[in-house]
Amino acid sequence: MASIRSFLGLDRPMAEGASVTDTVRKIVDALDRMEPEKARHLAAFSYVLSRVARADLTISPEETREMERIVRERGDLPEEQAILIVQMAKTQATLFGGTENFLVTQEFNAAASREQKINLLHCLYAVSAADRSISSVEDNEIRRISQEFGLSHEDFIAVRIEYRDALAVLKKPEPPSKS
């Protein structure tokens, strides 16, 4: 697997007048020193979070903040690293989502325990609910991921039911405003 440094293009000579801030260098250096298995796990985990956040074609600021919080806590990372990882995952999901979604999810699936997969489903719902409404598109994407993980329908429903208050399909429509 290529290093984070090469992914970000930091291993190539800089163009004249270009610079990389010391902060970015420090973050990338810290990620490069991370155990490769942990780095791969966090990369796939973050990508799958972005996959669901982007299912409705937009990633809200609330969803981004929730992804950063989850990655920071689950990865035991400083905020700056979590922000960088989430930003990279969002960019990859936006650019290559159609072709990479299944492949990255399968990579996570192959390395994760059943418990880690169920924990990720919780995180997917938490990200989707960050803007107080889980759209049907996001809910369907989470269902698809649970199937790609080989989880049972009962596993999926057990997680989903905890987020029922945010499911758009179960919300009472608001009356039209009188203007």
How would you describe what is shown here?
The chain is mainly alpha-helical. The chain has a single domain (33-168), classed as Orthogonal Bundle (TerB-like), CATH 1.10.3680. It is 66% helix and 0% strand. The protein has eight helices and no strands. It has helices at 4-7, 22-33, 36-53, 61-75, 79-111, 114-128, 136-148, 153-160. Helix 3 (36-53) crosses helix 6.
Element-level helix/strand string:
HHHHHHHH
**CATH class type:** Mainly Alpha
In the predicted model, the low-confidence regions spanning at least 5 consecutive residues are 14-20
Rg over CA atoms: 18 Å
The CATH homologous superfamily? TerB-like
Task: Assign the CATH topology.
Answer: TerB-like
Structural class: mainly alpha
How many helices does DSSP assign? Answer: 8
Estimated helix fraction: 55-70%
Based on DSSP secondary structure assignment, what is the total number of beta strands? Answer: 0
Coarse shape = globular
Concise description?
It contains 8 helices and no strands. The chain is an all-alpha fold.
List the defining traits of the structure above.
179 residues, mainly alpha, TerB-like
